[in-house]
Every structure is written in structure tokens, then in C-alpha cells.
Design goal:
Blueprint (H helix, E strand, L loop, with lengths): L11 E4 L6 H15 L3 E6 L5 H14 L3 E7 L2 H10 L4 E5 L8 E8 L3 E2 L6 H10 L11 E3 L3 H9 L10 E6 L5 H12 L3 E6 L21 H10 L3 E5 L6 E4 L5 E2 L1 H15 L4 E4 L5 H10 L2 E4 L4 H11 L3 E3 L5 E3 L5 E2 L3 H13 L3 H11 L6 E4 L4 H11 L5 E3 L4 E4 L3 E7 L5 E8 L3 H17 L1
Parallel strand pairs: 2-3, 2-4, 3-7, 8-9, 8-10, 13-14, 13-15
Antiparallel strand pairs: 1-5, 4-5, 5-6, 10-11, 11-12, 15-16, 16-17, 18-22, 19-20, 20-21, 21-22
Helix pairs in contact: 1-2, 1-4, 5-6, 8-9, 8-12, 13-14
């Protein structure tokens, strides 16, 4: 095959038909078997119309290389992570396009122990094997069996909760017709919590009648926010398509930016694990660093992206890691990200504090206002990067190039980085208690980027 554009930094993702199809998936199955050398592989898939067929071809490719396949069916990405370790498999493949457009699909991959696979650690080798296509004759066929690990998975998630501490509250949950609904229902049934769950779009539907589930987009937030308000709920929770990310709304319907959620969850863990190490990405950091210093924890910075976060967590044995993009990672969940564990921890944290969610984040938001991530789609990103460096680097008090370029000026801070997965520049700005300064710097830098 020619060069395959569906291979990205951390996964496989592409437009159906030309960039990703059943033939390519068959090749990926065989390539995965050759590169990773597993004896058994777990496969799962999301609700998109093509996902089951693509998963079937992955299984065919694996089996033709002599690998046994455990098919766990319709599920979320974290259920594949869980099942890979639960069944002691040599790898796991999840067919999902998550929040990408309707004409896309993709594959997320892990090796034994639910460890991530990236372009620098196995994915590049798989790509080379698929592009070469020289697999030769098939081996003795591997087996195929159906399994359902959801009950055991739900037990693991519920194990993060101490429901005896929960106070009664009302919580809106919106799955966006992705695959979160069935898993949520099992988890909620096991909790037996004094919580009234108001369910919204929990039935998986491949047509996505309420839009592609991606609550990070502002236009997708209204349905959750409005239901929180109309039902008088204490909290709103929404997931993306494969529910490895979750998003929160306070009792006023306001969306809570990811960096403040990381702060809340870090605080919850510090309450249980004194002096704990917490991993964070370098985009927006001041609120978390302040909280960690006050709480006696140790903040450890990592490059953005799940493979980097997970590797750093394992290196320092961190109990929790969080990214402002709504990925939350847990040591006691194979160091993997989960979209179900965070809302359980947040309800517990709200119960323990006796405060509303808006009250829990108000101090962080006031003392460390931030811009949220602003994305710029540019045909050529380098002129904007060069202009940014020329303008802002000389006067910076602190410079960090761990992930993009972070510049600290004392009263405000900025991070500009190229996306690992999309052709965009990502801008994040934060300030110390000065929203006017924040707004001015966002406008100033945005103008420079768009005019470069």
C-alpha cells in the first residue's frame, strides 16, 4: 500500500473509504500481531455504523496471524483498556472515531497491561508492516470468543467511591447517543447512591440525532446546561462518543473548564492520599500548582497526550493525572483514562465539602482566570510560531519548551503549541486575578497569529 495517512501520533484515524476501510483494518490486525506479538487481543467497538465491520476485519487479520481474539462488542474505550488487563491479554484494539465527524472512524491501541502504543513505540512499526503488505501465508487460525466484562469493569469503577459519604443530589447525565449509556446504567445500578440521575440521550444511536457527542465544542453544551436548569440539578455530566472524556456543568448550567476540574480531582485525591504525586500538562498550570502547594502534594508536569501522561504516571507512581482537555488518568485503573471515575469522585467531593460545584471552583476561577483553549486552523503554522516567538520570547521571565512554548511574565502566562492530532495551533493564556489583562493578551496574541 502507499503511505497511509490514517496513522497518527497516538492512534489510527481517518476518513472512511479512502483513508480507512476494511482492507486497511485487516492489514492493521496482521501488522499489530507481527509488531506486538500478542497471544490474545481484546477488541471492542463504538456505535458508528462501520465500527463493527471494521472490528471484524481487525479480528480476521489477527486470527490469520494465529492470535486469539476476545470480542467484547459495543463498549467504551476504557472498557477495552480494562478488559485487556482483566483477561491478561497481550493487547487491545478499540474501533472508535470518538468525537470526530460522522464520515470518520479510527482505532485506539494498547499492549499488555493496557500500556499505550504510540508512533515512537510500536505504531510506526505497525504502519510500516501494513504499507509493505508483505504478510505472506496465513498461520494456524486464532480463535474468536465473545466476552462481556462490563460487570467486572463496573465493579472496578464503583470501587473508587465511598457512597456512604454521599449526600442526596440530582445529577443530569448526557451520553449524546454515544456508548456511555449502557455502561453508566450498570455503574449507577451498583452504586445504590442517594442520587437522582436525570438521563439524557443515553441510548446509543449511530445516526447521532442530537449531533456528534463532543461537549468540548461550545455549541454542543446547551442541551445539558438547559436540562440542569430546568430540572434544578446540582450537577451536569456529559461524555464524548467513546466516553473516555467527561465534562461538567455546575448548578447554574455553567460549563466548568477542564483545568479547574483537574484541580478539583487533585484536591479530592490529596484528601485521601497525603503528599500524593499528581501529573498535569503544561498548558494551564497556576490554579493546580497553588492547590498542590496548599494541600501538600507534589505536582509533576508532563507533555500533553495520553502516552506521555501515562508513562510519567508510571515513572513517579502518581495516583492521578489530568489534562485540561478532559482526560483523567488513575493509577488504580491501570494508569488509564476514564470518563466514568471522575463524576463519581466529584459527587463524593461535593458531598464531603457540602458546597455547590460553582462554589468549589469560584476561588480558582477568580484567582487564576484562563482563556480556555483557542484553536487556530492555519495552512502554514510556522510563520505564526515565528512571529509569536519574536514578539514575546525576549521579555519572558520564564521559558519552557516541554510542550510547545510556555512563557511566564509573572502576572500572566501563555502556552502556544501545535496539536499532536490536528493541523491547528492551540493557544492558552492565564492570569493572576486580572480578567482585563487576560482578555487583552488573548486579543493581542490572537491578532498576531491570524495576521502572521
Amino acid at each position: 500500500m502507499s503511505t497511509l495517512t490514517c496513522f497518527k501520533s497516538y492512534d489510527v484515524r481517518g476518513r472512511l473509504g479512502d483513508e480507512l476501510n476494511e482492507d486497511i483494518c485487516y492489514g492493521i490486525g496482521r501488522g499489530f500481531a507481527r509488531a506486538i506479538e500478542p497471544k490474545t487481543v481484546v477488541i471492542g467497538y463504538d456505535i458508528r455504523p462501520t465500527s463493527q465491520a471494521l472490528a471484524g476485519q481487525l479480528a480476521e487479520g489477527l486470527r490469520d496471524e494465529g492470535v486469539d481474539v476476545i470480542d467484547i462488542g459495543l463498549c467504551g474505550t476504557e472498557e477495552v483498556y480494562f478488559a485487556t488487563s482483566h483477561y491478561e491479554a497481550g493487547g487491545g484494539l478499540m474501533v472508535t472515531a470518538s468525537h470526530n465527524p460522522i464520515d470518520y472512524n479510527g482505532i485506539k491501541m494498547v499492549r499488555a497491561g493496557s500500556r499505550p502504543i504510540s508512533s515512537a513505540d510500536g505504531l510506526g512499526e505497525i504502519q510500516a508492516l501494513v504499507e509493505a503488505g508483505d504478510f505472506g501465508p496465513t498461520k494456524t487460525r486464532g480463535s474468536l470468543e465473545q466476552q462481556n466484562p462490563r460487570d467486572a469493569y463496573a465493579d472496578r469503577v464503583v470501587g473508587f467511591a465511598d457512597v456512604s459519604t454521599w449526600r442526596p443530589m440530582k445529577v443530569v447525565v448526557n451520553a449524546g447517543n454515544g456508548v456511555a449509556g449502557p455502561a453508566f446504567d450498570v455503574i449507577a445500578g451498583k452504586l445504590g447512591a442517594p442520587v437522582d440521575f436525570v438521563r439524557q440521550h443515553l441510548t446509543p444511536d449511530s445516526t447521532f440525532p442530537n449531533g456528534i457527542p463532543n461537549p468540548l465544542l461550545e455549541e454542543n453544551r446547551a442541551q445539558t446546561a438547559e436540562l440542569v436548569l430546568s430540572k434544578g440539578a446540582d450537577l451536569g455530566v456529559a461524555w464524548d462518543g467513546d466516553f473516555d472524556r467527561c465534562f461538567f456543568f455546575d448548578e447554574t448550567g455553567a460549563f466548568i473548564d477542564g483545568e479547574y476540574v483537574v484541580g478539583l480531582l487533585a484536591g479530592a485525591f490529596l484528601g485521601k492520599h497525603a503528599g500524593a504525586k499528581i501529573i498535569h500538562d503544561p498548558r494551564v498550570i497556576w490554579a493546580l500548582l497553588d492547590l498542590m502547594e496548599a494541600g501538600g502534594g507534589e505536582a509533576v508536569v508532563s507533555q500533553s497526550g495520553h502516552s506521555h501522561i501515562k508513562a510519567t504516571m508510571r515513572e513517579v507512581d502518581a495516583v492521578y493525572g489530568g489534562e485540561m482537555s478532559a482526560h483523567h488518568y488513575f493509577r488504580d485503573f491501570m494508569y488509564c483514562d476514564s470518563g466514568m471515575i471522575p463524576w463519581i469522585l466529584l459527587i463524593e467531593h461535593m458531598s464531603a465539602s457540602g458546597k455547590k460545584l460553582s462554589e468549589l471552583v469560584a476561588d480558582m476561577q477568580a484567582r487564576f482566570p484562563s482563556s480556555g483553549e483557542i484553536n487556530f486552523k492555519l495552512a502554514d503554522k510556522q510563520p505564526a510560531i515565528d512571529a509569536f516567538e519574536a514578539t514575546y520570547l525576549p521579555d519572558a521571565k520564564g521559558v519552557d519548551r516541554l510542550d510547545g512554548l510556555s512563557l511566564d511574565y509573572g502576572d500572566w502566562r501563555v502556552n502556544l503549541r501545535q496539536s499532536n492530532t490536528e493541523p491547528v495551533l492551540r493557544l492558552n493564556v492565564e492570569a493572576r486575578g486580572d480578567r482585563a489583562l487576560l482578555a487583552a493578551k488573548v486579543a493581542e496574541i490572537s491578532k498576531l497569529i491570524t495576521e502572521a
